[in-house]
């Protein structure tokens, strides 16, 4: 049983630039993942508007009946979010680590165009290792 | 499921999760999106007028529900994104957290939505929301002067609610 179901990265205007599925039931087609990503982008923005106090930076954790969604927003507005089993620990640190991988292998790639879909082999390799490692850490407990 | 059969309020309210008063506001919507009740205890920031605020809140819940129903990784048959769903149908959500607040959400089988906004470090409030729903059934639905779908103006309900939420922490 996978702890992590899927990972999304969206750019600052809500466009999906990276999506990876790690074993959800039922295939999600490309259109659906794009629409979910932009829907999340707007929900994130609305949640800031509804804050009762100043300084709200949007949803960090959404707890649904069958999954948890952890979201991390970088200073430049790129959002990383991971869909995982309810109550999975260490997701914030995993997201921060994925952000590190993104800065190292995507942003420093001279062929990568900003805000465009991510197609970097090194990023894919390191990402799958990170997710595996996290899975191992979870199984080892 | 205690909250729809019981003829009396559950014997004892669930214990408070954190001490201190940290509830910001509470909304009750019916299934048509009419805001039946809005209470606020601590809300320094108001960006919109009340009507717009209620609409935005209902819209956020509606869209988040369709998002979670579509995203649900455990079911293969999910239907299309954005198709309205009956209460209890599809994967819903019970709370979300930002750095400044936590929103807990409950929907009854009849489509009554109860939303409680609290401090971000509040624990699980699902039982508390069920208790608030019980209060609603006891003091509002059973009030002979209350007509369904109208804004709630029951003094007894408001005072009991205030008391409970203040004790909630």
From TrEMBL, chain A:
Biological process terms in GO annotation: endoplasmic reticulum to Golgi vesicle-mediated transport
Domain of life: Eukaryota
This protein's record includes keyword DNA repair: no
UniProt-annotated location(s): Endoplasmic reticulum; Golgi apparatus, cis-Golgi network; Golgi apparatus
Pfam family for this entry, one: Sybindin
GO CC, alphabetical: endoplasmic reticulum; Golgi apparatus; TRAPP complex
Database matches in CDD domains: TRAPPC4_synbindin
Keyword terms of this UniProt record: Endoplasmic reticulum, ER-Golgi transport, Golgi apparatus, Transport
Predominant subcellular localization, coarse grouping: endoplasmic reticulum
Record-stated family: Belongs to the TRAPP small subunits family. TRAPPC4 subfamily.
Record's subunit section: Part of the multisubunit transport protein particle (TRAPP) complex.
Protein name: Trafficking protein particle complex subunit
Provenance organism: Nicotiana attenuata (Coyote tobacco)
UniProtKB/TrEMBL annotation, chain B:
A Gene Ontology cellular-component term: endoplasmic reticulum
Family from the record: Belongs to the TRAPP small subunits family. BET5 subfamily.
Subunit structure: Part of the multisubunit transport protein particle (TRAPP) complex.
This protein's record includes keyword Transport: yes
The entry's keywords: Endoplasmic reticulum, ER-Golgi transport, Golgi apparatus, Transport
GO BP terms in the entry: endoplasmic reticulum to Golgi vesicle-mediated transport
Lineage summary: Eukaryota, Viridiplantae, Streptophyta, Embryophyta, Tracheophyta
CDD domains on file: TRAPPC1_MUM2
Subcellular location: Endoplasmic reticulum; Golgi apparatus, cis-Golgi network
Organism per entry: Nicotiana attenuata
Annotated protein name in UniProt: Trafficking protein particle complex subunit
Domain of life the protein comes from: Eukaryota
Main location: endoplasmic reticulum
């Amino acid at each position: 049983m996978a702890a992590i179901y899927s990972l999304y990265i969206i750019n600052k205007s809500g466009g999906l630039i990276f999506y990876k599925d790690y074993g959800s039931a039922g295939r999600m087609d490309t259109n659906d993942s794009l629409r979910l990503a932009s829907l999340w982008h707007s929900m994130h923005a609305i949640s800031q508007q509804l804050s009762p106090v100043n300084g709200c930076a949007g949803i960090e954790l959404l707890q649904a009946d069958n999954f948890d969604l952890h979201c991390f927003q970088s200073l430049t507005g790129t959002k990383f979010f991971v869909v995982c089993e309810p109550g999975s620990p260490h997701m914030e640190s995993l997201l921060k680590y994925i952000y590190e991988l993104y800065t190292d292998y995507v942003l420093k790639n001279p062929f990568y165009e900003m805000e465009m879909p991510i197609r970097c082999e090194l990023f894919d390799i390191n990402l799958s290792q990170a997710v595996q490692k996290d899975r191992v850490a979870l199984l080892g407990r | 499921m205690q909250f729809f059969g019981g003829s009396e309020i559950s014997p004892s309210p669930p214990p408070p999760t954190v001490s201190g008063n940290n509830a910001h506001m509470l909304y009750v919507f019916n299934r048509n999106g009419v805001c039946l009740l809005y209470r606020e205890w601590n809300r320094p920031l108001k960006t919109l007028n009340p009507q717009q605020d209620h609409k935005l809140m209902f819209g956020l819940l509606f869209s988040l529900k369709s998002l979670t129903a579509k995203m649900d990784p455990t079911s293969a048959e999910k239907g299309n994104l954005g198709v309205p769903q009956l209460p209890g149908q599809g994967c819903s959500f019970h709370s979300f957290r930002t750095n400044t607040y936590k929103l807990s959400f409950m929907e009854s089988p009849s489509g009554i939505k109860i939303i409680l906004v609290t401090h971000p470090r509040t624990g699980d409030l699902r039982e508390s929301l069920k208790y608030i729903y019980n209060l609603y059934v006891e003091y509002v639905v059973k009030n002979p002067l209350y007509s369904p779908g109208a804004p709630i103006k029951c003094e007894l309900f408001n005072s009991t609610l205030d008391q409970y939420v203040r004790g909630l922490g």
